[in-house]
Amino acid sequence: MKVVKASLSSQNQVQAVTCLKKDGTTLQIDCTKLLLACGPWTPVVYRELFPSSSIHLQSSVNAGDWILCKNPCPTTLESVAFVTLDNIVGEKLEFAGRDDGTIWTCGRRNFTASLPPPGEIAEPDESMIEELSDGCRRWLNSKCRCAEKHSDGFQLISKGRAFRPATKSGLPVISKVAPSDLTSIPIDAAQTPESSSGVFVCWGHGSYGLTMGIGTGRLMGQLMRGEKPDLDLSLFALSRDGNEVKNTSHPIEGEKSSNL
Fold this sequence. Notes:
Blueprint: E1 2-8, E2 14-20, E3 26-30, E4 34-36, H1 42-49, E5 55-56, E6 59-60, E7 63-70, E8 81-84, E9 93-97, E10 102-106, H2 126-143, E11 156-163, E12 166-167, E13 173-176, H3 179-182, E14 199-203, H4 209-224, E15 245-246
Parallel strand pairs: 4-14
Antiparallel strand pairs: 1-2, 2-3, 5-15, 6-12, 7-10, 7-11, 8-9, 9-10, 13-14
């Protein structure tokens, strides 16, 4: 299912979401809280659900191509994962050995790739795949305990491209959305506290999503329950300068903004 609409009260409090099912029918789900944590597509989804919002989520493209190859010389049946910082591709090259005898390799970042629509898959850059493959072969030959070279035995199993959810500020967003920021319709601020919209945003961890995910989940849970978070979240709020800015006109993706 795909969420296509968010229903708000007269005071900009979330009341329900409308989902589009695969068979073309819709389903309405009542809710009082809505968390947008859609990875790199969070700005797109936010803009679709709240087109007149004064908040513009400023995203930065951070794509990463990857390969999965056959380990030509497994030294152990147990999983081995590590990162080498050797100057093979100009920046870190990450290798993750798996129990099935394969090696997952990535490390290069692509800042010019185009983010596909939600639900679609982007094809990797073939020149980048070849560069990763070459780096993997060189690394195997320099680190393997065997005397033989593995250039001829390199077996590429699969390849792909992933997009890291990144903000232009470089900091993640862990924040509630004020009712007055959801739409351009004036509301009575005296009757609607800034914390009562029920809409929250969590995204933009870049390459550190797995590392920071558990802690972020705890903080977001506290925020959504109305509790005081364990950490000061002002640096990650939508309202802070240099992060996601209030802008009634949404710049086209890639267009420079004077608010940056």
